[in-house]
Amino acid sequence: MWINNAYAQFGGAGGSDSGLSSIIMMVGMFAVLYFIMIRPQMKRQKELKTMLESLAKGDEVATASGLMGKITDLKDQYVTIELSPNFTVKMQRSAIAAILPKDTLKSI
What we know:
This protein is α+β, with helices and mostly antiparallel strands. The protein has helices at residues 14-53, 104-107, and strands at residues 60-63, 68-74, 78-84, 87-92, 96-99. Strand 1 (60-63) and strand 2 form a beta hairpin.
């Protein structure tokens, strides 16, 4: 009643070009998303995995919650971190966010 019907007319050669161009556009968008979002995230995950595998006793670390301490014991999935003298905490390896440079805790 309020809206009139609109009818599109097809041209002879326009139909096949629009299909090919839409496929090229989708592939291009996927490539952009891959290089901007997916690839950097995979790189960060790989760096985190190598960092967690390289942990050793005596390393000074910062956890995801902001705690900083020295590693005193390592297990497969868990680490024991000494936050202050005679105060240790056991947590998952995945909770470690960064390895700090040596003697960082002394300078704080």
